[in-house]
Amino acid sequence: MRKIIALIAGFAVLLGGAVAYVVSARHGGAAVNAVAVSTGQTLALEPSTLFFRNLADGPDRGKLAAVPAADPAAARRVGELSCDRFAAARGTAICLRLKPDSLPPLTEMIVLDASLKEVYRATLPGTPSRARVSPNGRIVNWTLFVSGDSYAASSFSTRTGFYNLDNQHIIKSVESLPVFVDDKRYFASDVNFWGITFAADGNRFYLTMASKGKTYLIEADNANYLGQAIARNVECPSLSPDGRRIAYKQKVATGKWRLAVLDLATRKVTNPPDDRLLDDQPVWRDNTTLLYPLRAPDGTTDIWSVGLTKPPTLLVRHATSPSLGGGQKP
Amino acid sequence: MYLAGTRAADQAAARTTPERTVLGRVPGTVVALGVVSLVTDISSEMVTAILPLYLVFGLGLNPLQFGLLDGLYAGATAVLRLVGGHVADRWQRLKAVAGIGYGVSAVAKLGFLVAGSSVPAIGAVLAVDRAGKGIRTAPRDALISLSSTPETLGRSFGVHRTMDTVGAALGPLAATAVLWAALGNYNAVFVTSFSLATCAVLLLMVLVPNRTRLSTEPAKNKPSFRTMLGLLREASFRRCCVWAAALGLFTVTDSFLYLALQRRWDIDGRLFPLLPLGTAGAFLLLAIPLGRLGDRIGRWKIFIAGHLALVVAVLLVCGPIGNWWLALALHGAFYAATDGVLPAAAGPMLPKELRASGLAVLQTGQALARMVSAVTVGLLWTLWDVGPALLLFTAALLTVTVAAAVIRPLEAAR
């Protein structure tokens, strides 16, 4: 009998503690924004605006925020839209966000017009990872992390797809893209694709293919739906506005990458003067400037800017997923 | 026939075991261990379900960094299972060692709060969690085995594995509920998971009786590690281990079967993670009836029939006929006919004081064989594509299964 009482007392303490923790977690968020935020704004895609996901503590954490690109320290303008990943170009934007309370996780892929009004939505399996809009504003693409191969959580894969606004055609996964490596058709069960970047013509695109521990830069043609490996050890490619260079994350060790730039004509790889660890698809602000989020040692994420040869500068604190309202400057 | 058979078995049970039985003549200890496993599985599957979200969203990590660790953990778990089984027999403290295993996994849940976003720390927490699972498995199965009469072992393991699976199916639901209540706070899931896992340890301590004196031998005659391996000198047990491992060598891993199934019937990616629930559903329906059938007609027959069910399931996935739910049902039947049936079949061959060691040897051999199988299927898949890889593998499984059925390694022992 004493044992049963001890059991019930133990349950009460343990489960009561868990309930108390859950209740306190509900009230855990900061009530006031840690940075200047103007709420209730109507945002629209303008080339002179820098968009990002606001990560500053407060009620508007997680919302899509806008600041003048020339004055990134200005008060952040936010509306109602929340995105985990955001990108824009030529009057079209893509917003990826995790669908609340979905297990296994689902992502809402939302296509928005110039006034950030929804024009298309798809719900896809996985968690948001990368998002881009083609320079002509007609194709949006995304990469999601999927962990559904089994209940074993430690096996992950990526799923990359795109949506064409002109013919409303969605490709949920490019895994069937025929790829040639060293002029031979490549077959493997473990192929993963991620990080698409489109060229100005809206047909040619680049992306990363991973298989058997190697990564390849694939140059692909949407009309013929064919791809060819043109370089190795290139992840999350981002094509410059003039189409001459590809900025990417270059692997330096397992789980560690730094920023690098490949010149497509000369195949020469250079490293911009920022050797800190990076894990995202870089954004070209113009033909010589790159934007990217970096994790600070304290665990927060900030948006930085670096020139191909000019030193890095801090652009926006507590922010991620940068994008210019009009896309890259041509 | 059926009634007479079970009654005879029940009378035998009544004669040989002093253990009180509940829930339709299942020993109380087995039900208690089932409850412990149910609560533990809710706790662990809660974490498993949110882990990808937590890593990517909570911490902003790149999950591909974790991919390679899986195989390593499986190997370490296999070795720790041997250690857990051996130590439990050496101390003659099955319940205590199982309790340590459950406790280690419970504490690991709080490790996530401490580990923060450090990749090595998270890897260490996952390793500790799985180490706990490795330690507890053999003494727990030995407790089930020792608290049942040899005639009803299949039913006991069936009941235990069914309750275990119920917990695993409830875990993701519990995680969703906690995330919803805590407004997306992942730490709340870890804290709740820790609370449930600790409740399970309390349940084990209170509900499962101590079995201190297992042997009539003097306590100083402690089994050594060599005694454990010496069990393999016993012919019937060795055959059991060898054939279980041989079958494991050609058993298609779940993830490959699900991938092939998704391709064959073009299943929506959103439904893909739910496929294991189909397997679990069939398992829930069949584990107890097949365990009982094994008690009556012979457990090895059921074990062999289970592998035939897997052969048919893979053929359906490769072939032009059938449908996905039939393949999943057969996959569930395979587990129902093998997972609890194998320890039930092997238990009576092992001396009581070496039950945990023996079950550890058996299950470790099977687990290592299945790891080799996973690597082999992966290689064949890469070389030849899905269809040929699975077909060749299944042909091999069919051959070994037929050989095992013809040779009947366990003819003497049921």
Description:
The complex is a heterodimer of chains A (330) and B (414). Chain A is mainly β and 330 residues long. Chain A has one domain (32-324): Neuraminidase, CATH 2.120.10.30. Chain A is built from one helix and 27 strands. Chain A has one helix at residues 2-26; strands at 37-38, 49-54, 63-68, 76-82, 85-89, 92-98, 106-112, 118-125, 127-133, 139-146, 157-164, 169-171, 179-181, 184-185, 192-198, 204-211, 214-221, 226-232, 235-239, 245-253, 256-263, 269-270, 283-286, 289-295, 301-307, 313-316, 319-324. In chain A, the strands form six sheets. Chain A has a six-stranded mixed β-sheet, with no helix packed on it. Chain A is globular. With 414 residues, chain B is an all-alpha fold. Chain B has two domains: 23-208, Growth Hormone, Chain: A (Up-down Bundle); 226-414, Growth Hormone, Chain: A (Up-down Bundle), CATH 1.20.1250.20. Helix content of chain B is 77%, strand content 1%. Chain B contains 16 helices and two strands. Chain B has a two-stranded antiparallel sheet with strand order 1-2. In chain B, strand 1 (21-22) and strand 2 form a beta hairpin. Chain B is globular and about 60 Å long. At the A-B interface, helix 1 and strand 8 of A face helix 2, helix 3, helix 6, helix 7 and helix 10 of B.
